[in-house]
Write a structure and sequence with these properties.
Elements lengths: L3 E7 L2 E6 H5 L5 H23 L3 H27 L4 E2 L1 H14 L4 H13 L14 H5 L9 H7 L5 H4 L2 H8 L1 H20 L4 H30 L21 H7 L16 H11 L3 E2 L6 H14 L3 H15 L8 H4 L1
Antiparallel strand pairs: 1-2, 3-4
The protein binds zinc ion.
Zinc ion binds next to helix 3 and helix 5.
Family: Belongs to the fatty acid desaturase type 1 family.
GO biological process, one term: unsaturated fatty acid biosynthetic process
Membrane topology: Multi-pass membrane protein
Length: 339
């Protein structure tokens, strides 16, 4: 029959499906409602913060917002999705608790989505619409369920390393309980019980304002390349945005060579809070085997790629492995030398 190109199996029966149905993504209405609440109540919470909240509540909210962002950037992105370093069990527990406080779904689901995003970057199947626009990637892509096509493709994302991480699987199993305890009750109760805040101020500042901040910063992991990277045809000197944001090639570098712990999520390299925290964790012996690539290794890799006509990424990865074995254990303390 014309137009029927795909099929799915429902209880063993082949049901014909059009190409359009196969690629269609429905809205996740629970998430749409949640996002409406986050934006409306979170915006009002800014007013509440300036008029009614105590300094203790504001500082506490800032601290747990930062921990939530660390759980997303250092935890989900650099540790679990890209394996840019290895972490001891206590550090993995800490990052798992931080990521739960971010309230953005399980580590397992976020890692799977991010690996899929990298695999389909700048293609139609990317769940975060990397071909579209910043708003699509930051907002729209997060509010839609996967299409049948994407669900099938997700099965090809290698998650074996994540499935064997007992801490990640523990969080996946008890996520609802952990979410309620760490993302709802802990922040509300702390402001209410220890800082003498009213229930209303606790809810607005510690929950809705924090959700607004962490959700937006966390979603940037998949959309920041629109803001901070130099896209084709972009002329930095023609734009006033250069005064507010630093356009750089680092996002392009990350999508080409994601196994570098120093690649920041927001266009920076080596200097951001995430990179600094990983160095602190390494100095405390909690993080090990930090992966990075020196300029010399990149240059050698490029030269070999030109000489041999082999793929650029393959040649640079080869040089990175060579360089890694020659690096001293504590290279992260001497970053000028290896940047
Ligand atoms: Zn990434």
């Amino acid at each position: 029959m014309p137009g029927q190109t795909k099929a799915e199996t429902v209880e063993g029966v082949q049901t014909p499906m059009t190409e359009q149905e196969f690629k269609k993504r429905d809205a996740n209405w629970v998430l749409v409602l949640f996002y409406i609440h986050v934006y409306v109540l979170g915006t009002y919470a800014i007013y509440v913060t300036f008029t009614s909240a105590s300094w203790s509540t504001i500082l506490f909210t800032g601290l747990i917002s930062l921990l939530g962002v660390l759980g997303v950037t250092v935890g989900v992105h650099r540790l679990w999705a890209h394996r840019t370093f290895t972490a001891t069990a206590p550090l993995r527990v800490f990052l798992m608790l931080c990521q739960t406080m971010a309230g953005q779904g399980t580590i397992y689901s976020r890692v799977q989505a991010h690996r899929f995003h990298h695999a389909k970057f700048l293609q139609d199947e990317d769940p975060y619409y990397s071909k579209e626009s910043f708003v699509y990637a930051q907002l729209h892509g997060n509010l839609l369920n996967y299409s049948k096509q994407q669900e099938q493709m997700l099965l090809n994302v290698d998650m074996s390393d994540i499935a064997s991480d007992r801490i990640v699987m523990f969080q996946k199993r008890y996520y609802v309980l952990l979410y309620i305890a760490l993302n709802v009750l802990l922040p509300l109760n702390t402001a209410f019980q220890y800082f003498g805040e009213s229930v209303a101020v606790s809810i607005f500042v510690s929950f809705w304002l924090r959700s607004l901040i962490v959700l937006n910063v966390g979603n940037l992991v998949n959309s920041a390349h629109f803001v901070w990277s130099i896209h084709k045809g972009f002329k930095p000197t023609d734009s006033n945005s250069i005064f507010f944001i630093t356009k750089s090639f680092w996002p392009q570098y990350h999508y080409m060579l994601p196994h570098d712990y120093q690649s920041g999520e927001f266009g920076d390299y080596a200097t951001g809070t995430g990179s600094t925290m990983i160095r602190v964790f390494a100095a405390l012996d909690l993080a090990k085997e930090l992966l990075t690539i020196s300029s010399v290794a990149v240059r050698n890799g490029l030269t070999i790629a030109v000489d041999t006509k082999r793929p650029i990424v393959e040649c640079i990865e080869e040089q990175r492995k060579l360089q890694q074995s020659a690096m001293p254990e504590n290279h992260f303390l001497n970053r000028e030398k290896f940047m």
